[in-house]
Amino acid sequence: MALSQEASHFDPKGKPPSQETIAIIEALRGSLPFEDERDFEEARKGFIAKPDFTQIMAEKGNVAWDIGSYDFLLQGEDFDTIHPSLQRQAVLNMSYGLYEVMPDRIYQVRGFDLANFTVVKGDTGWIVFDPLTAKETAAAALKLVNDTLGERPVTGVVYSHSHADHFGGVRGVVAEDDVREGLVPIIAPVGFMDHAVAENVYAGNAMNRRLFYQYGVLLPRSPFGHVDQSIGKNTAAGNLGLIAPTVVIEDDIKELTVDGVRMVFQNTPGTEAPAEMNTYFPDFKAFWAAENITGTIHNIYTLRGALVRDALEWSRQINAALYLFGQDAEVMFASHSWPRWGNERIQEVMRAQRDTYANLNNGVLHLANQGVTINEMHNEYSVPESLQQQWSARSYHGSVEHNSRAVINRYLGYWDANPATLIPLSPSESAPLFVEMMGGAGPIMARGQDLYDSGKYKLAQEILNKLVYAEPENQEAKDLLADVFEQIGYQQESPSVRNSFLAGAYELRNGIPSGASPKSSGPDMVRAMDTYLWLDFLGVRLDSAKAGDRSFTINMITPDNGEKFVIELSNGTLTNLQGYLADDPDLTMVLNRSDLEPVMMGMATIEDQIAAGKVALAGDTGIIDELKAMLVQFDLGFEILPGTGEQDLTPEANAFQQPEPADTSGG
After folding, report:
1. Residue 652 CB contacts under 8 Å (≥ 6 apart), including other chains
2. Which of 137, 226, 378, 638 is the most buried (most CB within 10 A)?
3. What is the DSSP letter of 324?
4. Is the pLDDT confidence value at 654 over 50?
5. d(CA 63, CA 56)
6. Is 409 helix (H, G, I), strand (E, B) or coil?
7. What are the DSSP E strand ranges found in 487-636?
8. Where does the pLDDT of residue 504 fall: very low under 50, low under 70, confident under 90, or very high at 90 and above?
9. Which residues pair with 391 in a beta bridge?
10. 567 and 576 in contact (C-beta within 8 Å)?
């Protein structure tokens, strides 16, 4: 049945699905392979127990996790505000509790965070794979395991890759002292520590703001709002930590035995994460696919922002896993979604995902080599029909549209080779001309309403977007554009795309709510930053206009870790070089890295450390105040859409405090 008339929109300006949207949704219900219910059987298989709660509280007193807020999905109602394929995925992701993957050996807790909490039974304890995003959700998952299966110590931790929802809860399962003393190994792929932090520093503020859109941070859980995040319900809002790995897998293939369990690791760099690895358990014929093979086609380009990934390399690594492990595996499980059992089923899913990523790469380049541009590709490329009819090849986390544009961007860049688009005007500059040539706001509004009423939403957004850029204070225009965005959002299979349109509609109608912010990444992430990253980001924060023609050179030495840097300001640019010192610096600073970290984390100012005798200075000490005056503190509340109102969402910080890196949960 369709969305009930009693269901109310969370936004007073919100609209129900139009007749055009309902017609699209109904047509999709008849064109997709809903008769294939194997995913539901697999998602239910092995269920053992669930807790008597649906909320998990954070240490700070807020709700860290609330799967019960999505219970509207379990009422048996077909919603005309949700793409039917997405609704199916959203219901599958409602699995909540402890599940058996392999009898007396492998178990998963699902529905406690965006990722799955996986434990492998060793000779003496639990080996934890991917301890979720937050300390609180990871601790709750481990407690459910111990309460149900019998208490055992954690004897090892494996981080499958460098995204936060796969390591952030580590402090909920193991004590750092036990790791440092060698009692509990933490195993990770080569490059893990670099990428866990560095991937999210330079554009971190912008990435966190864009997270409002991709993850629908401001959207209520509702048939009209947030319904799913494709690889799980959402990310937990708890205490995110990081303990550095003690065992790094550097070889392409490496076998280790941990607590009596043989594991074969396959490094897969450049796939879903820059540092990632699969794991095979030869004695169990069990294959852990990390986040390389889940219940969806993933992001080649993630909308929050990240470097574009390599779809062809991703396909190659799945193919390698297929021939290394997939010929023998009897169960395949992963850090998201549900397991697959039986070798035939495992190979079916592996081949479907292998072929989808390969076809995405090759099909886009096939068209690009015939002149199809980045601004046309998403309307030209399509997934082969045989893959469209396989649920494991549907694009929930990624969308075909934004992934196809990402592939061409990887190889050819953002320019479509038309000189008119090479150095374009900014939208705010070009929009007034378009509005003038269209006769002003009145005719545009009238035509926009006609297009909306006839279900031609993409045409409507073309002209209404111009009007909103030309007249940011025209609330009537913003409201109509919001109506258009909303209908487009309802029609999307990918929740990232859905959320982006619905979040845009929300902000056009209401502005950016004050006080809104995504969860923070915690002090561990800042502590784990390399010093050069901190210095690099000072360079990003430097306002060249304020620096003017001032120039100076600083030598900085951190004796406790043996680092040294030469830092130069020249030509309105702050640079640093590790391993070198200037012969005649204007200022020399000597302080331990351990004394720099409180400054980086905002727990102390540089002046505090100087006063405490923890910094030795020689030369022009006034340079410190000069540099502070040149630095800008980025605020999270910048406008994305015109006329939505900037908000002060970032508290004041010390001048040299490092903002927390962006949240990478979900890739």
Report:
1. 633
2. 137
3. I
4. yes
5. 6
6. helix
7. 552-558, 563-570, 573-578, 587-590, 616-619
8. very high
9. none
10. yes
Cα separation values, 323 from 266, 327, 331, 356, 450, Å:
12, 6, 15, 17, 56
* C-alpha span between 151 and 343 (Å, rounded): 32
Q: How far, rounded to the nearest angstrom, does the alpha carbon of residue 362 sit from its chain's CA centroid?
A: 25
Q: How confident is the model at residue 519 (pLDDT cuts 50, 70, 90)?
A: low
Taken as a whole, the chain contains a residue count of 667
Question: Residues of the chain with pLDDT > 70: what percent?
Answer: 98
Tokens of 449: 């309403």
Distance CA 473, CA 539 (A): 35
Provide the b/e sequence for 29-54 (b: ≥16 CB within 10 Å). eeebeeeeeebeebbeebeeebbeee
- Token code pair at residue 450: 């006609």
Residue with tokens 């390389």: 292
Inter-residue contact 186 to 256 (CB < 8 Å): no
Other C-beta atoms within 10 Å of 152: how many? 16
At 663, the pLDDT band (50, 70, 90 cuts) reads confident
- Average pLDDT (249-262) is 98
Residue written as token pair 């080599």? 369
Torsion, Cα 614 619 620 621, to 10 degrees, reads 10
Q: CB–CB of 522/241 below 8 Å?
A: yes
Q: How far is CA 243 from CA 134, 240, 283, 508, in A?
A: 13, 11, 29, 41
**Residue 73 CB-half CA count within 13 A:** 25
Q: How far apart are CA 142 and CA 75, in angstroms?
A: 30
Q: What pLDDT is attached to residue 515?
A: 63
The identity of residue 80, as a single letter, is D
The bridge status of strand 331-333 relative to strand 340-341 is antiparallel
CA-CA distance, 454 to 481, in Å (whole number)?
15
* Residue 349 CB neighbours (<10 A): 23
Inter-axis angle of helices 531-541 and 593-600, nearest 10: 40
HEC letters along 606-662: HHHHHHCCCCEEEECCHHHHHHHHHECCCCCCCCCCCCCCCCCCCCCCCCCCCCCCC
Mean local confidence (pLDDT), 367-380: 98
Does the structure show a pLDDT above 60 at 1?
A: no
CA distances 113 to 141, 147, 236, 529, 632, Å, are 9, 19, 6, 25, 35
pLDDT recorded at residue 6: 45
DSSP code of residue 336? S
Residue carrying the six token digits 């410190």: 624
First to last CA, the chain: 34
Are 331 and 281 in contact by the 8 Å Cβ rule? The answer is: no
Q: Strands 261-267 and 277-281: what pairing? A: antiparallel
Both tokens assigned to 220: 């209520």
CA-atom Rg of the chain in angstroms: 26
The tokens describing 344, both together, are 């035939």
Q: Which two tokens stand for residue 587?
A: 């200022």
